[in-house]
Amino acid sequence: QGKFTLLRDTRTDGSFLVHHFLSFYLRAGCKVCFVALLQSFSHYNIVAQKLGVSLTAAKERGQLVFLEGLKSCLDLLFGEEEQSGQPSPLQFISTSNLRALFDFVRTSLTPTDGDSWKAPVLLVDDLSVLLSLGATPVAVLDFIHYCRVVVCSQLKGNIVVLVHSSEDSEDEENELVVNSMCHHSDLILWVEGLATGFCKDVHGEIKIIKRVSLESTEQDLVQIYQYKIQDKNVTFFARGLSAAVL
Amino acid sequence: LLSTEEDKYGVYSNLLFKYFLAEGVLCGHDLFVASAKETPDNILKELPGPLLDDTYRNELREEATAVKSEDFQDSMKIAWRYENLPKMEASPTSSTKFGHYYDISKTMSPELFQSIKWHSFFLPEELSLEPKLKMCNMNCGYARLLQSIQRIIYQEGFDGSLPQKKQKNILRIGIQSLGSMLWGDDICSTDTPKDIHSLTKFLYVLRGLLRKSLSACIITVPAHLVQNKAIMERVTNLSDVVVGLESFIGSERETNPLYKDYHGLLHVHQIPRLNSLICDVSDTKDLAFRLKRKQFTIERLHLPPDLSDTVSRSSKQDLAESAKLLSSGCGAMAIGKKHLDF
């Protein structure tokens, strides 16, 4: 409860973790607010069906609030003037102010009467896009901070965020955001390629860093596994013990 | 959304661009060509002519219609088409999955254009027509282009807004040299541009338009000119497929015996992972291209055998350098920090 999980990928695609968390929390009966900035709804829906969850059904019964960033952006730019009263959550493209996005998250996760879902979850894919769309790093960090206050502390829910980063990246703003969030996360799942290069059977390595306590100076628990992605699931195994080798 | 990082003089990326459009003509897709430096008319006049012999042509027609029916899903993006070109030298009439072959010594005859509808956007003309357009603080040229694309998609029904139109078709969009100074963007001329978000905002909205309609798009970007590399990283994140062309013209590799058969290297930086957990990675990561009189081919890079008696220190170093480059994979599958592949 009240945990902040950071999904971080370096030179590879960590979105399989996003799909996992999405179907995991939906199956667990939590109310999920998914801010999907980079892909369309049907993409997630098709993968979720392979993992055994129907996003359309979840949306209909009110368990899933899906913000399709690409679609909202088009509605904002090319749609007719609507007097809906609620500013579009993607408004920051023109105003660089993430307030409307935060309000959207807050209203979708605040429980209404008749809601019987378990703890709320905020899922973001991915945060690095906000920087590409004109938000400053400070604005992005503030947004995450506000979300944490509401979702983790007040509503006792969880947050899962995906970011891209790389050690030799030249995108300093992005690295700033990622580093800052690393210090504030309870759990970091860091996905990277193998140090030895591309391999068909082992797609990469995942480092699981669990913060034992944010206050004390105890060492974080670090576990490393390797993984292979298949059509319907991902297999994890200890280093060097891939099925191809044994 | 396919992003192509241009080679230094734009020669080869231009060729890829024209291939994309030519394929569209032959498949009967509609075209939308946008450029700031050449009029779209001229671009279309220079498309390569198709290479056909009669039996092959019939086979192609059947395959083309088969492919079209698969393409009718709600959102369309381009997959990496050229994987299907034969990697070894093989005659063009051998079996292929789909696609056409072209003869670049000939240009496409105007009759082939009759059956398709094409739309053009030439920046100097468009800017003179309409005064400044304000769209989320984006560069004016980009904003006009987006508006134009959106209008065509809506009017021609590519986004499903014309239900009475039974025959669905695909719109192929080609945008040349995005990010260059000709589009009014200064990311190529300075390290601290006035508005570093214009290009990325444009790409985001373009991506939205592509996802919402039956269209596919190729853009070429002069990546070597962009001063602020963070922008190129963001462009890569916003695209589905990213391909980089590195030509050997004027570089020391031109005289390197390793590369004597080729004109350049093709780097696949990213491939799409759409609608699925996995992506389709080919076995070969090292692709090189060459431009012959009639054909532009992309092949697996063969390192020639090390046959000389006196292999000096420097050339061994060179081999190691190129081996380092060769073993770097693409972004969807992980790449490593060191080069232990041989």
Automatic annotation (TrEMBL), chain A:
Q: Give the primary localization class.
A: cytoplasm
Q: Where is the signal peptide?
A: none
Is Cytoplasm tagged as a keyword? yes
One GO biological-process annotation of the entry reads: tRNA wobble uridine modification
Q: In which pathway does it act?
A: tRNA modification; 5-methoxycarbonylmethyl-2-thiouridine-tRNA biosynthesis
Arranged from A to Z, the UniProt key words for this protein are: Cytoplasm, Nucleus, tRNA processing
User: Quick check: keyword Nucleus in the entry?
Assistant: yes
- Compartments (UniProt record): Cytoplasm; Nucleus
Q: Which family does it belong to?
A: Belongs to the ELP6 family.
Task: Output this protein's name.
Answer: Elongator complex protein 6
Gene label: Elp6
Automatic annotation (TrEMBL), chain B:
The pathway that the record names for this protein is:
tRNA modification; 5-methoxycarbonylmethyl-2-thiouridine-tRNA biosynthesis
- One Pfam family this sequence matches: PAXNEB
Q: Which gene codes for it? A: Elp4
Function as written in the Swiss-Prot or TrEMBL entry: Component of the elongator complex which is required for multiple tRNA modifications, including mcm5U (5-methoxycarbonylmethyl uridine), mcm5s2U (5-methoxycarbonylmethyl-2-thiouridine), and ncm5U (5-carbamoylmethyl uridine). The elongator complex catalyzes the formation of carboxymethyluridine in the wobble base at position 34 in tRNAs.
Q: Which InterPro entries match?
A: Elongator_complex_protein_4, P-loop_NTPase
Q: Which GO terms describe its biological process?
A: tRNA wobble uridine modification
Task: Specify the domain of life of the species encoding this protein.
Answer: Eukaryota
Put simply, this protein is called Elongator complex protein 4
Keywords assigned by UniProt? Cytoplasm, Nucleus, tRNA processing
Q: Which family does it belong to?
A: Belongs to the ELP4 family.
Q: What is its main location?
A: cytoplasm
